[in-house]
Each structure stands twice: as structure tokens, then as C-alpha cells.
Amino acid sequence: MDRTQPEQAGGTETAAAARQARPDPADDRRAAGTRGVPAAAVRAMTTFSPADEEKRRGVRRMKLTATGLLLFVAVVYVLAEWASHAGAGPWAGYVAAAAEAGMVGALADWFAVTALFRHPLGIPIPHTAIIPTKKDQLGVSLGEFVGENFLSGDVVRQRLRAVGIGSRLGAWLAEPQNADRVTAELATALRGALTVLRDSDVQAVVGEAITRRANVQEIAPGMGKMLEKVVADGGHKRFVDLIVSRAHDWLVLHGDSVMDAVQGGAPGWTPRFVDRKVGERVYKELLRFCAEMRDMPSHPARGALDRFLTDFAADLQSDTDTRAKVERLKGEVLGRGEVQDLIASAWTAVRSMIVSAAEDERSELRLRVRASLLSLGARMATETKIQGKVDGWVEGAAVHVVTTYRSEITLLITDTVASWDAGHTTRKIEAHIGRDLQFIRINGTVVGSLAGLLIYTVSRMLGA
């Protein structure tokens, strides 16, 4: 029987359980400084929960049962031997042989079970107390086992392929309530991200990115190509029509202002009536020019304007001086404070719009996201091509993670086991598996008795 774990009285047992259930501050300090292992991981192995205490009580009951069975066969053996010497008959020899073999089996299994957790009878026999003395090696072996058998690329890929994530995810997303849930979570995440970001930081980054991009990229050739395309398609003609029409209307409403401006610019020595005639003549010619240009699509001025725009588009693409002037103008415009303020205000407006849309369940943004998720889920649930793509993405990502970080994961297992206190770890493991191990002692007693009876019977038959 294991004398290193004596059964205690009720009060003593309760007090010991209470002491072990309380976390030891030294355990937390040890956990905090153990190679980066979280303190909670160590504390979980150095404290006993009520469920753990109940398991320990179950282990003690099974120990009493196994030990009681050992004592029972020992008593049977003594009585059978006494009966055999007293001339009770052949049956006593059979019972004594069975009881003797049962004792041997019970003692052998007691030694084997006890050797896992401590030195039997406190004697430091080699290769005993395996768990407390080999804890770190067991942690290394466990980490290597997990790495080789669970964190290999082939195992992960085969397991994920058997699961069929693409079809399952598609069927899940196709449910309206699930699409609503994902949409709400995405909206919350987006709103949280935009709330955390500081406007000044984002404005600075956006402004710097736009300015750097604009400075690096020459805009004159692109503008030339765009202008060339517009002129070739006649897209500028509506703009010309609008300008000419507005100019004619303005001249009709402000004829006096035009004539006064012409008269005001005349030399002081000319007669006033001559200035008035000249002003009237200039005004009428301007009015006639605008009216003809407005009403005549083939007006010579329109053709001249087309040729000017065509030549300007060509110069923007090929003329060095023109392109240099455009670049200098671009730099001056981007350097103005008004432009930077415009960029900053644009981010503020966009941010406010996105936050409002994320908060409103009936906003166009959330409705479109929900509809897209439902459509994606329906396609993923039915189209094998999309399922294959999703499965490939998931498998590739999972394989990348396990192959890249396999050593870190196995090191976490190794370090966590190494950080556990040997004594606490032994008691906790024994609490979880000790009850089943006590059945080994019981089975050893029973099987040993049957084997001893069989051997004795065979030997008697052969001897006869």
C-alpha cells in the first residue's frame, strides 16, 4: 500500500484541501518570470478547483478499494495455508495459489502505478517518480509529438479538406440571421477602427501620400491624352456652347457697362459723341460675334478653338517647355494651404459618412454588405469552383501558419510544462487519471489470482 499518501481525518483533509485551493502568491511570481509563459497557465497547474478536489477524493476511495482487495487476498492466502496444513483437503491448495498470485499481481501493479508519481515507500529506486523527475523531458516529447503529428502541413491540409470549409461557410452565410450577424460585427469593427484613429494622423498621412504621389507622377501627358480624346469626340463643344450662350446673355443685360468701359478707355482729346459711337459699335460687334458663334456650329472661331485645343493637347504630351510649366503649376497648387485644408476636410467628411452608415442598420452601406454576404454564401454553398478556391485559401493560410510558427507553438508547450511545479503537477495529474490507474491494481489482483489458479491447476494435472 502507498504509505506516502496516508488517509487523513475529515478535519485535516478539509484544511489541506482549503490550503491547496488558495493560489500561492509565490506561484504567480514564478509564473510571471518563466520565459514569457502566461501566469494563468502556471496558476492553472498550481491550484485545485472544487472539481479537482472531488477527483482527488475519488482517487482516494479507489485507493482504499484496491488496497482493501489486496488485504482481502492476503487474508484469504493466510486462511487457505492454515486450512491446507490443517488437512482441509486439496481445495485449500487451489485457493492459496490463487490468493498468492493475486497478492503478487496487486503488489506489482501497485509498484508500477506508484512509480509514475513518486518513489514507492519513499525509497529512491531508479526509474521511479517518473512524472516529477521527467516532467521537462515529457514536455519536450509532448511538444515534438504535437509538432510532428498535428502541426505538419500535410496533416493540416488533409484535415481541412475533409471538413469542407467552403461549403459549410457558404451554407452558414446564406442564412439571413447569420449574414445580419456578420454585417453587424463588421460595422462594429469598422466603427471602432475609425473611432480609434486620430483625425490629425490620418489627415497627415493622406495629405502626404497624395502630395508624394502627385509629385512623383507627371500629369501633363495624361492631361494631354485626355484633352485629345475630348476634342476628338467633340465633348468640348457643349462647354463652348454654354460659355458663348452665357456671354451673349451677359452682354444683353450689361450693354451699358460694356459701352461705358469702352468710352472710359478712349483718349481724353476725342469728342464724347465719337467715344459713344465707338462704344456702341464695339458692343454691337461683340453681341453679333457671340450670337453667330452660338448659332453657327461651323463658325470660324469654333474651328480655331478646336485647332488650339488640339495643338495644346499635343504640346502637353510632347513639348518639354509646356510640360515643365504644367509641373511647376502643379507644385504651386499642391503647396497652397487651401489644397491641404481641402484634403483634410475630405477625410473628415468621409469618416463621418462611413461612421454614420455603419451605425445605421438601414443604411445603403450595411444593406449592400448584407446582400453581398447572402449572395456570396449562396454561391459558396452551391458552386464547387468557389468552394475549391475558399478551401485552397484556408488551407494555404493554415499551412503557412503551422509551418512558420510550429517551433513557437511547440516551444510554448515545452516552456509551459517546464514552468509547472513538479509536486503540484504530479498531484494534479494523479487527480485526473489516478482513479483509472487504481483499476489497474484491482485488475492485477483479479487477473493474478486467475493466472495463479490456472498455473496451479495445470501443474497439479501434469504432476498427476
Description of the molecule:
The protein has 464 residues and is mostly helical. Among the domains are: 167 residues, no CATH class; 133 residues, no CATH class. Helix content is 84%, strand content 0%. The chain is built from 22 helices and no strands. The N terminus is likely disordered.
Form type: rod-shaped
**What is the helix content?**
over 70%
Rg estimate, integer Å: 47 Å
Give the CA-CA distance, first to last residue. Answer: 38 Å
The percentage of residues in β strands lies in under 5%
Keywords: Membrane, Transmembrane, Transmembrane helix
Pfam families: DUF445
InterPro entries: DUF445 (IPR007383)
Biased composition (Low complexity): 1-20
What is the element layout, followed by pairings?
Elements: H1 10-21, H2 25-32, H3 39-46, H4 50-85, H5 91-117, H6 130-133, H7 135-149, H8 153-163, H9 165-173, H10 176-196, H11 199-216, H12 220-233, H13 237-253, H14 255-264, H15 272-295, H16 300-318, H17 320-335, H18 337-359, H19 364-382, H20 384-404, H21 406-419, H22 422-463
Helix pairs in contact: 2-3, 4-5, 4-22, 5-22, 7-21, 8-20, 9-19, 9-20, 10-18, 10-19, 11-18, 12-16, 13-15, 14-15, 16-17, 19-20
What descriptive keywords fit this protein?
464 residues, DUF445 domain-containing protein, disordered N terminus, mainly alpha, DUF445, transmembrane helix, single chain, transmembrane, rod-shaped, 22 helices
Brief sketch in words of this structure:
Helices cover 84% and strands 0% of the residues. The longest helix is centred in the C-terminal third of the chain and has 42 residues, at 422-463. The chain has helices at residues 10-21, 25-32, 39-46, 50-85, 91-117, 130-133, 135-149, 153-163, 165-173, 176-196, 199-216, 220-233, 237-253, 255-264, 272-295, 300-318, 320-335, 337-359, 364-382, 384-404, 406-419, 422-463.
